[in-house]
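Dissemination and training. As part of the outreach component of the grant, students in the summer workshop were shown how a complex can be specified as a set of sequence lines and then modelled as a single object. The example used during the hands-on session is reproduced here so that future cohorts can follow it. Participants entered these lines:
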Amino acid sequence: MNSLRLFTKALLIVLGLFGATTLALAIFLAWSMNDNLTAEFQDKGRAIAESIAGSSGEILLNRDPATVQAMVDERREGIPGVSYILVIDSNRDVIAHTFVPTVPEELLQLAGNPRKTAIQNVNVEGQLDCINICSPILAGQAGYVHVGMDRKLIRERIWDRVSLMFGLTVSLFAVCAVVTFLLMRKISRPLTRLTQAAQKLGSGDILVTEGSAALPDWFPDSTATDEVGQLTQAFRRMVLEVLAREKELNQKFRLLLDSTAEAIYGIDPNGLCIFCNPACVRMLGHENAGALLGRSMHAIAQHTRADGSPNSAEGCRIHQCLREGKETQAEDEVFWRADGTRFPVQYSCSPMFRDGTAIGAVVTFVDISERKRIETELQQAKKAAEAASSAKSEFLANMSHEIRTPMNGIIGMSELALDTDLSAEQREYLEGVRMSAHALLKLINDILDFSKIEAGKLDLEVVDFELREMLGNTMKTLTFRAHDKGLELAYEIPPSVPNHLQGDPTRLRQVLVNLVGNALKFTEQGEIVVAVEVVERSAADVELHFSVRDTGIGISPDKQKLIFEPFSQADGSTTRKFGGTGLGLTISTQLVEMMNGRIWVESEPGAGSTFHFTTRFGVKPAGSTPRVALIPSKLQDTPVLIVDDNATNRRILTDTLRHWQMRPTAVESGAAALLALRQAADAGKPFRLVLVDAMMPEMDGFMLAARIKEEQDFANVTIMMLTSGNQRGDAARCRELGMAAYLVKPVQQAELFSTIVQALGISFEKPALSAPVVPNPQPQRSQALNILLAEDNAVNQKVAVRMLEKLGHKVTVADNGRQALLALEKQAFDVVLMDVQMPEMGGFQATEIIRTSELQSGRHLPIIAMTAHAMKGDREKCLEAGMDAYVAKPMQAKEIQEAMESVLASIGPADGCVAGAAS
Amino acid sequence: MKNLVFSARSMLILGALIVPLPGDAFAQELVVGTSAAFTGPSKGLGIELYRGSKAYFDHVNSRGGVHGRQIVMKAYDDGYNPTPAIENTIRLIEKDKVFLLLNYVGTPTTTRCLPLLKRHQDQSVFLFFPFTGAQPQRQAPYGEFVFNLRASYYQETAGLVDHFVKIGRKRIAVFYQIDAYGRNGWEGVRAALARQNLRMAGEATYRRGTPFQDSMKLQVDTLRQADPDAVICIGAYAACAAFIRDARDAGWNVPIANVSFVGSESLLALLKKAGSANELDYTKDLINSQVVPSYHDLKLPAVAEYRQMMADYAPAPPRDLMTEDYDYLPRSFVSLEGFLNAKLLVAILQKMGPPFERRRLKEASESIADLDLGIGVPVSLGSNRHQAHDQVYFTVVQSGRFEPLHDWTRWQR
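and obtained this result:
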């Protein structure tokens, strides 16, 4: 039928052209024929009329109508196109005519021209439509001849010809159309057959039979060599190729299905099985595929749920997949075998589409009984492992306690012993004991930290802290070690770094101590500079970049990665030389990462190393305000001379003073300082303050100070000494030289500021801040407290008692919780230091009893826990038990004093007595 | 009357003395040529005219012929159409070389052939006794080549008009065949009325060859509007019968007259047939003028002869002409006219005698004077008289046949 459509289109076009052409021709033909025939008829009519007129004159005069009529008849009958002939005499009487039944009156009224033949059209409705030719007979004397030439005949003739032409044209066209149709059919019939064959092929009507390479008989073939023939043959070859490929695909598909371990079956939209593989048959426990094909897979394998309730096909996920055409998967269902047993399956169901319509689905499934069993076993193994891990943690905690308890004794006792009168030899031995004990404690702490981190039991605190204070305190503790080795230790915090932060200062301190400690360890001479800067800051938090730069031995590039790994140092030999566990950097790395930062190193062997790390802290808005507004106007534009041989120190001091709007000038030696002082004095702008480094080559700080004091011109200059070391007698020398103050480097900004203000403003006699100024800081004698110490270990009892008594407190000892309770009944205490682990009654239990009794009294006795536990959760446990603070063993005098002060400050003394706060 | 007696007598004597002459076939025969309607609506005229002549020629030939010559009729059919008539005439003259032309039927046919006679006047081709009363063959320029026996249409129509006017029927209309015949009759009526200072009340035409089955209602209506006292038909029997039928069917009882050419028996046969079918008498108030006496008038010797010879010879046209069904009329005005035509021709030929040369025909014919054909009145021909008989007879249908009409008063107004 395609051929006909094509043909019809062509035909319509050609028909249109033919039609237009024919119409044009017909119009032309009609027009020209009308012209010709009219002219011919007129000529003919004229000839007739004139011949009658010419020959009838005498006859008319003789009045012989029959003869005239015979003549008329002859003309009329013999000549086509003559409609009528009328002869009238001069009286308009009719002589001869050819009308039936009568002569129309209209014709008789026609006036003739006596001189010539006249032509006019005559139209009598329903009778005549003629060209009337009127000839006079004997110049009208004898009458007139009227000849009517039939215009109808003209039209008939035209119509005849036009019809004939139309007929011919149409016939010709019909012949052409038939020929064209035959030709086109010859072309299109094979094409149509090809199309039908292609459609059959598409609808899968041609099925490949095993081993047959031939196409069915009906498949179009051609031996012709024309284009259609070639097309047909090409199509055959293509179809054969397609069929061969399909066969191959089928084989592959079959092979795939047969060989795969996964069970696979296909269903049609009604859920009936259309194919399945051997694995499927086997898993479902059937004999062969025949048991499944054409049957509802749902009814076979999914009729019931795992819990025994019937599983409706509507609710089944596979049928949902069929309906919605979406892939689905399940692991929590069961399939049923032929023998009525069931097994857990994991299946996935993928819809099959043809032309966008789901025509079924393919389900692949596996029996996951084994997996389920293994999962169960794994679950059990995990539980066991967790239990074991928990036991290990408990063991670690216990170990910690057990180790720390004697360590506490060793350290405490050796320190107490060192405070007694000892021979030099004894002192040396004891000093060795103390140092070894500290080393051991450090080792233990590292291992415990590492274990906690490894076990994931280390949690960071989030508390408010002041960065500058924290950093200053940390540096201070390290200063002595640095000065012992003759190293400069400086730190630098630009004003842009916010001060009030939120985070875990303890852990930050641990990292810094570790890094600076390493630097101290590997640096023989030079300096160690700690710097902080802001990487990124938002309203809520800040990312800080810390760097610790030393001028030590450096680390070769190939070791730089290695050093962050546990138990490794840059060189195996260094371990022996420098000691240490090698855990420090590992712990630092992990702490930094926990603080959302990273750590890395830049180093060049021989030139020193710089360790960097970044951390993220919350920002407290209150602390971010710089104290610019608080700077006294006196300080403004005060000329200050800085004398230090260390460039870093000079820069830090210069920057700091400049920030305070002073006018610092830095020089690197005593000689330069004297020169600068002289020049300033001569210029009339004398320095009011000189900051002098104590240790300098050639002329040291003390010598410089002496020289300055000698000069009268410099009488008004205030000198402040910055010492790196902790040399005994430095303070005495300072006082002797009349210096305003001396500060131990690294200097905290706040400390420097207040010292300067005091030195310039008021008395030079008293240091602004006692704590930093005192080289070997004595514990501040705050108000003496009445302390109850609950501690079972005799050694530790002694250590604690001595330590507390040295701090000026009065101590009562209880051996356990019960005794502590008894003691509390006898007298009131300001604070209780409670060991957690004690025989008879532990610290927690005792605390609980105390707190319970306090419910009635309304009082609150400060209780500070002492624990050898350094494990995660110790602090929480203590607080949960109602304790107010917690101190880890081995106890340090400073730590315990701080803890007590902090607790008393926040709670207030139990008996109304006020605890003296250092600040 | 003397001439007539003489002629008859000499004819009998001569007939007895006929001796076959030696020579070619032509010499033994006198061939007379005819073109007439043997087919078509007017075939009854041609056939019956031929039969009447044939009966007499058979009679003469059976007695040895004319001066030993057998008279042979050579006939062609023209179907009452001019063109075949002309062709037939040419063939008769040039191919068949007939001795003379006889028994042409119809005005339009005969009139058109007249120029041929003039064309062949050097060969002295004469036409004898055409079956038409038209004027052209009775007057210049062709009258000299034609000899007529019958009265003219002018005479017939004048007779009819005179009788109608006499009985007070002055409004006379004409129904005519629109050709030379019809117009000739029309002119006859017009001229007759003009002589009485009357004008034609109305007229209507029909086309020659119209068959009986055709309707003539248009013509009937046209004429009836003119309200005439009488209608005179100048036509052929088929058309006139149709006109009469349709007039009577329309309830129009006006007297209708026909002239001799109509062929009264043929007309009557059609009207009777139609009348019996329609249970109407179409023959009432019907008047036909004739140019020969009634063949029922047995007092006339010619009628007796005619009847005897028609019965004896049972004449028939050549079979090849009889292509259409036709029942011969036993007797008819037409065959009687044919009989009389033959009788007069034989008389002329007898009188002429050998040598039978065409150029002698004119003189022989014009020498006929007061010849008694047995029709009650003698006939004469002369150089100024090429029509032998002038009498017109009127007939009316009585007892199913045309009988002589003597009393017109029944239509008196």
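Chain A touches chain B at residues 62-70, 73-74, 77-78, 96-102 (CB under 8 Å). Students were then asked to discuss how this feature might be tested experimentally.
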